[in-house]
Amino acid sequence: MCGRxxxxxxxxxxxxxxxxxxxxxxxxxxxxxxxxxxxxxxxHDPDRVTHQQWGLIPSWADDDFSxxxxxxxxxxxxxxxxxxxYERRRCLVxxxxxxxxxxxxxGKQPYRITRADGEPFAMAGLWERWEPETTQTGLxxxxxxxxxxxxxxxxxxxxxxxTEANEFQSAYHHRxxxxxxxxxxxxxxxxxxxxxxxxxxxNLDAYPVSTRxxxxxxxxxxxxxxxxx
Length: 229
Fold this sequence. Notes:
Number of domains: 1
Low-confidence stretches: 136-149
Number of strands: 13
Order of helices and strands: EHEEEEHEEEEEEEHE
Oligomer: single chain
Strand order of the largest sheet: 2-1-7-8-13
CATH topology: hypothetical protein yedk fold
Helix content: under 10%
CATH architecture: Alpha-Beta Complex
Mean pLDDT: 92
């Protein structure tokens, strides 16, 4: 699975790498966590970075539905929560690393996994638009008596597609995010090709990091520094 990742490259490098426009909302995340608003590139708006909440909520979900952070590649085309998004709403989730935890004598040791060349990459994602069933009476009214724009209540969310681990990843977890080859990124946005959802064939690297990454409150450069395992 993928429950934490990092994306802290400069906005200029992000724009150049993915051939997109990057707005002022973009900020570095050394410890990106579920429920946060994070940068994505969607098939509906492929020329710019937008921000969505990590944890996909299907359009039909009720108000107490918990967002789903990962979608299994093997069943993404048939699960009710993902099938429509798989066909209609795909995205790229930019990253420069992701985290996995392994058992150790002192508990679980986190590792940061990156491309071996250190380059940023895109994870395959799905996205959705969801609107709460209920709103609190009166909160949509302004001083002039006009109702707030209904679009303000719409929440856009995303999930990261996972697949079986490749040989390298299997030392850390039996599954991994779908890391797309750069040549396949635009193809994923254009078409739901299941052949793209395969284990990554490129070279990866991993190193131990501090257990500070366990808390989403710790989102600073020290989180990605190598430590002794």
